[in-house]
Specification:
It contains twelve helices and no strands. The chain has 370 residues and is mostly helical. Helix 1 runs parallel beside helix 5, helix 9 packs antiparallel against helix 10 and helix 10 runs antiparallel to helix 11. The chain is 79% helix and 0% strand. It has one domain: Up-down Bundle (Growth Hormone, Chain: A), CATH 1.20.1250.20.
Length: 370
């Protein structure tokens, strides 16, 4: 059974529930402050757990950590579906953030230890494809399933949770798969670790802002759950699918010019969203955002897992930055939208995040390989 199906199902349930919580917040007329706090709650737990997971995740601990974190995540999802008050939702999102941080660090360690190091690009592109596909289907189905209600969705959570644990438990790590079976030289250039960290911080600030506020804005403007889920589906579907293409274009990685050009493309996309906000623009530009995001996320996971030392620690830093950017990105977007109201203000602040990434990548020195 394909191990990558586990992360597909995990992200599927996470984003069905995430969309459900944020759209319900919009329907209940939660203030921008409350919506912001719900949007960043996950990040608090994610940061705290990421600082720990990078130190304890290894070949021996990855499997039990995956099982335990799956149980906690599914339980949190069910509680979030059933409880409507702000405080319960906030605390449960913090807990879910912590459990998913352990899950995704352990998952990368698990697949790294059961795959040839020489196939790092293929492994990480498949990983990027599956988690994005899970999110994409989560957004698409959440629009349709929103009216099904908490009970029906809770049953779905349990079924997916059992399937995830079954897939993980069926996977065996033999002594042969735990060692290299083809020659491979790890990259030793710290410059690209920094490039990966800058890009994952920037792209996650952008995407978490969109994932938090687009459902809220849609509900407030009476756009149906199904229609509001389609642009988000296109974003994540493009992000996942493009990663399979990137696996065949290794020359785009460890390439400073490519990183700068991709980020410049992202800047143009969000400038268009800011200047011409409309449903058609959302469909086109969210799809293009997926292409931009695919390169950024895949760069970060490849650089972290392909570095010559401290790979679990590097992944832990990736996940910590995901948590931090999920908080700072959503918080800054919320305050920006308060002071600069308008349909396109969300996308202007997203463009500014990318400008910051371009500046940082341009300024940091490119060290020679060790």
């Amino acid at each position: 059974m394909n191990i990558f199906l586990a992360t597909f199902l995990t992200d599927l349930i996470l984003f069905i529930v995430g969309f459900f919580v944020m759209y319900r917040a919009g329907e209940n007329n939660f203030s921008n402050l409350f919506c912001m706090l719900l949007g960043i709650a996950n990040g608090f737990g994610y940061i705290a757990a990421s600082l720990i997971s990078g130190k304890i995740v290894n070949q021996k601990t990855s499997k039990p950590i995956l099982i335990i974190s799956t149980i906690v995540t599914v339980a949190s999802c069910i509680a979030l579906l059933c409880l409507k008050d702000f405080l319960s939702n906030f605390l449960l999102l913090v807990l879910m953030g912590a459990s998913t941080s352990f899950y995704f660090n352990a998952f990368q360690s698990f697949i790294r230890n059961t795959s040839s190091r020489g196939e790092i690009f293929k492994t990480m592109s498949t990983y990027t494809f599956t988690w994005n596909s899970g999110i994409a289907l989560g957004f698409l189905s959440s629009g349709s399933l929103y009216r099904a209600g908490p009970v029906a969705l809770s049953v779905l959570m349990v079924i997916c949770g059992i399937a995830i644990m079954g897939i993980i438990n069926a996977r065996r790590v033999s002594a042969e798969t735990a060692v290299d079976n083809e020659a491979h030289s790890f990259n030793a250039n710290p410059f690209y670790l920094w490039v990966g960290w800058i890009m994952i911080f920037s792209v996650n600030s952008v995407e978490r802002s969109i994932q938090t506020f687009f459902p809220v804005i849609s509900a407030q403007n009476n756009l149906s759950p199904f229609l509001s889920g389609i642009p988000l589906f296109l974003l994540m579907a493009a992000q996942g699918t493009f990663s399979l293409y990137l696996a065949k274009k290794k020359n785009l990685f460890y390439n400073k010019k490519a990183a700068l050009l991709i980020n410049l493309s992202g800047l143009l996309i969000f400038t268009a969203l800011w200047l011409y906000p409309s449903y058609i623009t959302y469909l086109v530009c969210f799809f293009l955002t997926g292409l931009y995001g695919s390169f950024c996320y895949m760069s970060a996971v490849v650089y972290a897992n392909n570095h010559h030392e401290n790979r679990s620690h590097n992944v832990g830093i990736n996940e910590t930055l995901v948590g931090i950017s999920g908080i700072t990105g959503v918080a800054m977007s919320s305050f920006f939208m308060e002071y600069f109201p308008g349909a396109g203000s969300l996308y202007l602040i997203c463009a500014l995040y990318i400008v910051a990434a371009i500046v940082y990548i341009s300024l940091i020195p490119e060290h020679k390989k060790a």
